[in-house]
Amino acid sequence: MSLLEIENLSVRFRIKGGWGRSAWLHAVDDVSLSLPRGKTLALVGESGSGKTTAALAAARLVPASEGAVRLDGTDLLTLEGETLRRARARVQVIFQDPYSSLNPRLRAGAIVREPMDALNTPPKAERADRVAELFAQVGLRPEQQALFPHQFSGGQRQRIGIARALATRPELIVCDEAVSALDVAVQAQILNLLRRLQAELGLTFLFISHDLGVVQHMSDRVAVMYMGRIVEEADRGPLFSAPLHPYTQALLAAVPSIDRRRRGRSAVKATGETPDPLNPPPGCMFASRCPRAEALCRETRPALEEKSPGHRAACHFPGPSGD
Amino acid sequence: MTDRPDMAGAPPVEKPRSPAAEAFEMFRRNHAAVAGLVVLIAVIGIAAFGPLLYPEDPFMMVWTPFSPPGEQGYLFGTDYLGRDIMTLMIHGARVSITVGLAAALVTVTIGITVGALAGFFRGLVEEALMRLTEFFQVLPTLLFSMVIVALFGASLPMITLAIGLVSWPAVARITRAEFLRIRELEYVAAARAGGVRNGRLIFRVILPNAAPPIIVQAALMVGSAILFEAGLSFLGLTDPNVASWGQIIGANRPYILDASYTVTVPGIAIFVTVLAISLVGDGLNDALNPKLRAR
User: pTM, whole model, 2 decimals?
Assistant: First the structure.
């Protein structure tokens, strides 16, 4: 049984033009995913592909237009008011920017304590101990509770953000580009910390990243998004070794490598322009950049179908890249 | 703990310093602002304790009219009714400062409420509140406050309210702008994800971070409220039984050529006080603006 079931999730934004005109931007279009307890699902894609919006909509931080987000059977999207506030304890977010994600006017200890006070759990007397425990868990010293965010380095700030996300003992944690603002050495520390916490606490991660190296290190399953839709979804192994969708192949080919064999390989290149998201074409969104596109691709949008067990792709002509 | 090599040999913990402590340090380095603060404290001291040293009724005739400064021990001389300008000034300071502070308080209260609600809730709430703000913003301020005072009587509370009613749009706009910026920051999203309620989100999470420019604006508002009160008093729209600096100028206006000191003394007092407040406001602006502060 999956912990998280996202069904047909869509997020639309109304873009206002001049003279009262407006258009709808489909930031997330008909996304369905499922994520078993204790596992990590990575959402990858380029900037603007809707991966962050999809995850934040699932966490009820961005309003969703359609669909269902079931956490252990409860549809989070139908919750309102106090029930929603209570349910927030179960889904927490680690944010991208370690600078803007911490309130500059609160001391580190107070930042970690904030969700406990807001949700009134655990009992007041235990909260100070819980803060101390969380600080130890993420590798911060107890006396650092008294410091303000600007007195920490980027990596330490991200540890505070992680401690805050753990404060309510959540089941699901959305890691929104949690390491992309950090330099490489610190990235590795934070990723290892996240993996250790996942193993110790049985956490489930929805891991958003554009960095395929990080994704390969962290994830059990990977979903690739392009212009608001999932184009390919598979377990980590098959996705990285035998990607079916030409967009995934182009993404993988774009990863810099010092491996001579890999570097020598003829790369799948995505050339051309992305379509106007306010006025999307009827066919495949990737057709304008796809080396394999044919007339069918421009006319009919390919459905996301299972091409082999557990490996879904939305492409009329899936298959290994022709090199 | 293999993933924390950064902890080994870490320097001793920096002394925890609050943002307020750092702001004070920045303020202290601005000499003009410190000078303004000293003057301001002196003026407030005179307003608070001066009437104890000069307990006489300021409207009592004490000597011949138009007695020049210094004569008969009256430091600032007497006005056209033979009243001691020194006593008038000291009692007037209390009124001017009180009206200035109270009007700024009214301004900030209305402005923050309107601006915070508009910036936080967006949508129809914002539309309605900002149209209201614009309505008040385009009213000719002096004229509108004159109408209020003329209609509801020239008592000090009414004058304070009138000044507050015409000045709040600036604070509302600043507050809204700050809320629009801060509500999109990740720590607000994190607080929301942590189950923080809207009320707490507005007043405990966003407002403290929006406070610096509002504090600066509020400080400057005190100065402009004092000027405003002086202007209304000068036009005769004031409680004739209460001395204020503007009222002294207004009352002695016809004699400006024959006895210029009767208007010069309160004029300089207003000038110095408002200048001091502006310097303090400017210093606060530098001290509270994080963009100027080194990280």
Answer: 0.84
